[in-house]
Amino acid sequence: MNNVGRMRLHELQDKQRAIVECVYCEGDLRQRLLEMGIIKGANIQVEREAPLGDPLHIKIKGYSLSLRKEEACDIEVSIV
Q1: What pTM does this model have?
Q2: I need a labelling partner for 32 at 20 to 30 A (CA). Which of 7, 60, 65, 71 fits?
């Protein structure tokens, strides 16, 4: 598998766009993220990071949501 250009969601800069490649967490958290539309192939954009670095505000599938940095660490993306 080629991981060139891949990173974790929390590493993206403000306004940077990416495509979801993999969600690594398990259980209820994984299910919650999938239900919010964070699935492989989805376009995702970091809107902004909160002043103290947590949470991360993202836009996916036309709506905005906030994720804790801890959750964003479990999401692998590739830069668009």
Answers
A1: 0.86
A2: 7
